[in-house]
């Protein structure tokens, strides 16, 4: 079984056949910040079925008591509690092993992810300030867009609070990998669990760079077909935004992808050697300080960036073409914290 198949089999075991928590490790406390939202609710439901979660902490500015009461009736072992508003955030975070952040507004048709910056930058900065204060040891997985900027914002806020560990901060790009695996499985007419494909770069438009030449099983497509598939993967989020006609962006597939990423984090925390993709502080490409790529995770966070592997000339061109945009988004995030300071960002 390849890595992707192992990961999916693992999630399927956890989600479809809940069982008792592994005896080798303590079940974790996991917080979802933005838990009442389109992603937050189904993600919380998937986490409620995970035997690796002992305590689920649902935080939002509204509606979490209802969501927690509802999910609390699911007959799995974990306990669950809803917390509402900034006064309850410290308790929600206390003792967390993993904090997943899908708080913030989603796109409507015609918007780019960067159009969300003005609102979501402050939300992520404020929540990460609280994480730095109340659970500085936790791993943090950021879903809120624009990920290419919100992760550098989180890093900068946590640095200023003296609580930044680059090994434990992740931008969640798992949905790009999930989509690429699904689309390739349809083309090759194979089970998606038997597909593996790297998707690197960032999480917006051309910064999403699938490395289709490394697809397993291999893709037998023309240059033109490869370019079309690359474009479909890059624009898959927009495909969903347009189909939802103003009612938001991907929520259910994102919840699935975030549950896969959370499961990877919790398995790594429990001592498993785990390989997964995420957007992190990086040294893979010279002068690109944050990048999504293949990571080895261990109990203390990212152990190793596994590199990009052999690239086709089209893939190298795609990386060269997206780098200025990615660098611009990273700089915008860092400058946001530098200019406004964390206090202002929290207002
Ligand atoms: N990384 C990815 O691959 C990916 C995929 C899909 C969506 N997203 C992003 O995820 C974010 C959430 O999307 P959604 O569809 O769930 O949106 P949504 O509007 O349905 O839910 C967002 C939730 O965040 C809450 N919220 C707002 N401010 C908050 C704060 N300060 N503290 C805590 N909670 C707060 C809201 O009350 C709401 O419940 C968006 O920014 C979207 O672009 C990222
Ligand atoms: O497209 C969006 O705005 C949401 C998300 O980033 C996605 O890829 O679905």
From TrEMBL:
<dbReference type="Pfam" id="PF00056">
    <property type="entry name" value="Ldh_1_N"/>
</dbReference>
<dbReference type="InterPro" id="IPR001252">
    <property type="entry name" value="Malate_DH_AS"/>
</dbReference>
<keyword id="KW-0329">Glyoxylate bypass</keyword>
<comment type="subunit">
    <text>Homodimer.</text>
</comment>
<dbReference type="InterPro" id="IPR015955">
    <property type="entry name" value="Lactate_DH/Glyco_Ohase_4_C"/>
</dbReference>
<comment type="similarity">
    <text>Belongs to the LDH/MDH superfamily. MDH type 1 family.</text>
</comment>
<keyword id="KW-0576">Peroxisome</keyword>
<dbReference type="Pfam" id="PF02866">
    <property type="entry name" value="Ldh_1_C"/>
</dbReference>
<dbReference type="InterPro" id="IPR036291">
    <property type="entry name" value="NAD(P)-bd_dom_sf"/>
</dbReference>
<dbReference type="InterPro" id="IPR022383">
    <property type="entry name" value="Lactate/malate_DH_C"/>
</dbReference>
<keyword id="KW-0816">Tricarboxylic acid cycle</keyword>
<keyword id="KW-0560">Oxidoreductase</keyword>
<dbReference type="InterPro" id="IPR010097">
    <property type="entry name" value="Malate_DH_type1"/>
</dbReference>
<protein>
    <recommendedName>
        <fullName>Malate dehydrogenase</fullName>
        <ecNumber>1.1.1.37</ecNumber>
    </recommendedName>
</protein>
<feature type="domain" description="Lactate/malate dehydrogenase C-terminal">
    <location>
        <begin position="173"/>
        <end position="337"/>
    </location>
</feature>
<dbReference type="InterPro" id="IPR001557">
    <property type="entry name" value="L-lactate/malate_DH"/>
</dbReference>
<keyword id="KW-0520">NAD</keyword>
<dbReference type="InterPro" id="IPR001236">
    <property type="entry name" value="Lactate/malate_DH_N"/>
</dbReference>
<feature type="domain" description="Lactate/malate dehydrogenase N-terminal">
    <location>
        <begin position="29"/>
        <end position="171"/>
    </location>
</feature>
């Amino acid at each position: 079984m390849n890595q992707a198949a192992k990961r999916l089999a693992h999630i399927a075991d956890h989600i479809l056949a809940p069982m008792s928590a592994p005896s080798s490790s303590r079940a974790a406390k996991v917080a979802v910040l933005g838990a009442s939202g389109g992603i937050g609710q189904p993600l919380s439901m998937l986490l409620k079925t995970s035997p690796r979660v002992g305590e689920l902490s649902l935080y939002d500015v509204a509606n979490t008591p209802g969501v927690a009461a509802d999910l609390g009736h699911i007959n799995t072992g974990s306990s669950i509690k809803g917390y509402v508003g900034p006064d309850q955030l410290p308790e929600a975070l206390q003792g967390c092993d993993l904090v997943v952040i899908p708080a913030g507004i989603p796109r409507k048709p015609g918007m780019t992810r960067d159009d969300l910056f003005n609102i979501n930058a402050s939300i992520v900065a404020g929540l990460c300030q609280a994480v730095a204060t109340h659970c500085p040891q936790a791993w943090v997985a950021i879903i809120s867009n624009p990920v290419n900027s919100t992760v550098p914002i989180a890093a900068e806020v946590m640095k200023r609070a003296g609580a930044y560990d680059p090994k434990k901060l992740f931008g969640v790009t798992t949905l790009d990998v999930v989509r690429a695996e699904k689309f390739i499985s349809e083309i090759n007419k194979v089970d998606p669990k038997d597909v593996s494909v790297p998707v690197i770069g960032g999480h917006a438009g051309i910064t999403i760079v699938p490395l289709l030449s490394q697809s397993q099983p291999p893709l037998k497509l023309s240059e033109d077909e490869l370019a079309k598939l690359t474009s479909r993967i890059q624009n898959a989020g927009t495909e969903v935004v347009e189909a939802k006609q103003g009612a938001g962006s991907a929520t259910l597939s994102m919840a699935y992808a975030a549950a896969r990423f959370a499961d990877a984090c919790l398995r790594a925390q429990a001592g498993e050697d785990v390989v997964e993709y995420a957007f992190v502080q990086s040294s893979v490409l010279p002068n690109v300080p944050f990048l999504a790529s293949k990571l080895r995770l261990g109990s203390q966070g990212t152990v190793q960036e596994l590199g990009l592997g052999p690239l086709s000339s089209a893939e190298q061109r795609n990386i060269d073409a997206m780098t200025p945009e990615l660098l611009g988004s990273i700089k915008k995030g860092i400058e946001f914290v530098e200019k406004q300071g964390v206090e202002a960002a929290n207002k």
